Amino acid sequence: INIIKVNSEQQFNETGAGIIASLLQSNPRAILGLATGGTPVGVYQKLVELYREGVVSFKQASSYNLDEYVGLPENHPESYRRFMNEKLFDHIDIPIENTHVPSGNSEKAAEEYTRLLEKAGQIDLQLLGVGHNGHIGFNEPNENLHGPTHIVELDELTRQANARYFSSIEEVPTHAVTMGIGTILQAKQILLMAKGADKAEIVAKALKGPITTQCPASLLQTHANVVVVLDQAAGGLL
Ligand code: F6R
């Protein structure tokens, strides 16, 4: 595991965006696995800048997002489809039909997304954030984890963390559809990003603690090509 500690928010975003941009420069048809949440927002902003400067193009790229809430309409302000359109896709040259976010409104969504991912082949680079409980995607700590895309019940901690985007915790969906651990670990390269002191403990557990389904991010220790980008605070316990 290659750990990069950066000194500022700007460096954090530039480093993440830089890794994605160099992949696209060497492989314009790259298949990107993308994440939502607070962590990648600045990375996406930086990618938009790089696109505007002509440094990078997404014209032939395609993307698969990790997860989506169950039960929110696609145009709900907090749906992950809308998040991705607003933060990234609307501002770059990726054909929108090349972008994929699982549907949170179809009973067959998990199966369909699994099939779609199988057809797409290997993801070249999977961007990940990490939850305070060690979740990646919405694979919550559990006795058993699932390989393919599936529906999960969100942990209370996850709903609390994400309540900041909703007007009350009651409005945070109870379930989500998420890419499974199997698919995530099949990516050629994984880029895990975390910032802030509140992530320090889980980052240390994930990268240095025992490999256990009770900390899904610890399974990244089994992957041969992981890059971790941390700010000083999130890397504080390493
Ligand atoms: C988002 C996702 C989640 C987040 C994690 C961290 O698509 O899959 O695993 O990456 O909850 O969220 P933030 O970045 O908001 O701290």
From TrEMBL:
It is an enzyme of class 3 (hydrolase). One of its GO terms (biological process) is carbohydrate metabolic process. The keyword Hydrolase applies. Pathway: Amino-sugar metabolism; N-acetylneuraminate degradation; D-fructose 6-phosphate from N-acetylneuraminate: step 5/5. It catalyses: alpha-D-glucosamine 6-phosphate + H2O = beta-D-fructose 6-phosphate + NH4(+). The keyword tRNA processing does not apply. The active site is at residues 67, 133, 135, 140. Its EC number is 3.5.99.6. Pfam families: Glucosamine_iso (PF01182). CDD domains: GlcN6P_deaminase (cd01399). One of its GO terms (molecular function) is glucosamine-6-phosphate deaminase activity. InterPro entries: Glc/Gal-6P_isomerase, GlcN6P_deaminase-like, Glucosamine6P_isomerase, Glucosamine6P_isomerase_CS, NagB/RpiA_transferase-like. Keywords: Carbohydrate metabolism, Hydrolase. Belongs to the glucosamine/galactosamine-6-phosphate isomerase family. NagB subfamily. Catalyzes the reversible isomerization-deamination of glucosamine 6-phosphate (GlcN6P) to form fructose 6-phosphate (Fru6P) and ammonium ion. This is Glucosamine-6-phosphate deaminase. The gene is nagB.
